[in-house]
Specification:
Two copies of one chain form a homodimer. Chain A is mainly alpha-helical. Chain A contains six helices and two strands; from the N terminus they run αααββααα. A two-stranded antiparallel sheet of chain A has the order 1-2. In chain A, a hairpin with a 3-residue loop joins strand 1 and strand 2. In chain A, helix 1 crosses helix 3. Chains A and B meet through helix 4, helix 5 and helix 6 of A and helix 4, helix 5 and helix 6 of B. Chain A binds a DNA duplex through helix 2 and helix 3.
DNA sequence: TAGGTGTACTATGTCGGGTAGTACACCTTG
DNA sequence: CAAGGTGTACTACCCGACATAGTACACCTA
């Protein structure tokens, strides 16, 4: 269900968060569907339970999931909407990146082609 | 000459590297122009000399600058070319970002507009 | 010779990430 | 009721990256 790279610069708990968010956005994890328990996921990924909890706790704070003590963690009703609104902030990263590439003399057409290709693939796979 | 944010998540030495690279790409630091000395820059930015040296050492390893012991550090002849080639790897980051935004349902036109605006501004300022 | 330059080295402190272990409260199931 | 699963909280510890502090060396120029 998850692919974790312990050698990555990116913290494990962030990798978990990103992958869970993508599962929600793709619809593979619908609203109210139950997430793997902290302990089971800990065993499956050979990761400390505290690391899993850190990821779950962050998602819970942001309203992506909700937890019921004694029962488990579940995807929030409007998780996808929250994520979509949150993703909009990534447009700033896009601007920063485009600015760097423009500065390096990489032609605008090259960036446009990149994006067009990505959206074409997404449009097909979805 | 430099703006350093000690509170940033990004390490100080990386901030230095990025700003120096941009000065080279914009042509404000031509080939063979001398960089501020480790000690003077250390005083100016209130940063430990070791941190400055770490940045310089990294740039030297990558062929962006060259150092002459007893004299100083200078911009390499083909620094701009090296940086432009290196920047091309950022296109992967662009793809990753576009993929995320596509997944979040942000329309392609919005990304295209972003990039077009950036390149328009760059075209004017240069 | 004096002062500036890059370079190297050790020691120290801080912080984030991660692990280890324990404990508690809750719910479901037998 | 008892057992086992669930989320949650807490302390302690380790490790690496980052940064600082201080010292020292070799080099070049004025």
């Amino acid at each position: 269900m998850f692919r974790i790279d312990p050698l990555s610069r990116q913290p494990v708990y962030e990798q978990l968060i990103e992958q869970l968010e993508k599962l929600v956005l793709t619809g593979l994890l619908p609203a109210d569907s139950q997430l793997p328990s902290v302990r089971s996921l800990s065993l499956e990924l050979s990761i400390n339970p505290n690391t899993i909890q850190k990821a779950y706790s962050d998602l819970d704070t942001r309203g992506i999931i909700y937890s019921v003590p004694g029962i488990g963690c579940f995807v929030a009703k409007n998780a996808a909407e929250v994520l979509q609104a949150h993703m909009r902030r990534k447009l700033d990263s896009l601007r920063q990146l485009a600015d760097d590439l423009a500065l390096a003399g990489i032609p605008e057409e090259e960036l446009i082609d990149c994006i067009h290709t990505i959206y074409k693939e997404r449009g097909v796979t979805l």
